[in-house]
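Attaching the record inline, Q. Sequence:
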Amino acid sequence: MMGLAIMIFVGLFAFGDQAFGWHDHSSRIQVALFLSFVLGIICGYRTKG
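Structure, as predicted:
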């Protein structure tokens, strides 16, 4: 499951603007994707442990 999450994240992070037509010149969408992924990892480890 973690591998699938990483592949989706990389796909959205790298090609999200082309796939969904995002026009983000200040990279705010990429920062939001990165933060949500990192916070998801942290929450996942906290609930697992």
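The mean pLDDT is 84. The first helix runs from residue 2 to 20.

More tomorrow.
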